[in-house]
Amino acid sequence: TYRHRPMPPRHRRTFRPSGFGAALRADIYTVTLLIAPIRTEVMARRLRRILAVTGIAALTALGSAPAGAAAISPSTPVGTIASVQPTNGQVVGVAAPITVTFTKPVSDRSAAERSIVVTSPANLSGRYQWLDNSVVQWIPDHYYPAHSQITMMAGGVPRTFGTGATVLGVASISGHTFTVSVDGVVMRQMPASMGKPRHPTPVGSFTVLEKQASVVMDSRTIGIPLNDPEGYKLTVADAVRITWGGVYVHSAPWSVGSQGYSNVSHGCINLGPDNASWYFNQVSIGDPVIINA
Hints:
By secondary structure, the chain is mostly beta strands. It has helices at 41-63, 109-114, 273-282, and strands spanning 13-15, 24-26, 31-32, 81-85, 91-92, 98-102, 116-120, 126-132, 135-140, 149-154, 157-163, 167-172, 177-182, 185-191, 204-207, 210-218, 233-241, 248-251, 269-271, 288-292. It is 13% helix and 35% strand. The relative contact order is 0.13. A hairpin with a 4-residue loop joins strand 2 (24-26) and strand 3. The radius of gyration is 28 Å and the shape is globular. Residues 1-44 and 50-77 have low confidence and may be disordered. The longest helix is centred in the N-terminal third of the chain and has 23 residues, at 41-63.
């Protein structure tokens, strides 16, 4: 659930043109004039002069704003930031994306992206991915340095989070293995079973999204009825999610006989209970997982 903060009050300026004695209040949207009723042609001419002076003053004030203010100006349809993940002080894996959620849909995505900058380490490149109209992720092109502090700006506010060890899981679909290294040192190569031909495990680079000590897996969520020969509803332990589509690395005592020899799962990476527990306790949100064919 995202916290929503009310929009900040609009910044207002007061212009006082000399010689007229009336205070004119203007913001970037509205100019309000309070004048006495106009009854003569003289007053009409005076009104035209007032409008001309006020328009020039307002345009001058807006035109003098620095170029960098565009990302945070009230006139830019970016919106207020509701939340940023990772949070300040959080320690995450070296592949963790930065997720920024706005309080309302963003119409100017380019301005929103410019307001999200990683300042340290320097020269760290990445790409933006919009999950919906109010949520954007900045995904690093390369892993963050391990055991480091990452500093960023989001909406003009500095934030800092940390990274732990580089815990990298590499699955080999054809080799039926799941190998885990920590800071470049192989710690375990475990027998595994991946997706059967009808339900293949996706190939590519992934990031640990969440960890669940216990989760109910229901085949209906991937379009398989419970009464189908392929149907299932199981409570699974030590589940590490790597896609929002339902792919996990998890404990699978029912497939231990196939692990290391054949692929019999519905797309997940099956490990034996001891190996699954060990990996669950090693891995953090944001750690990378690579699945090779």
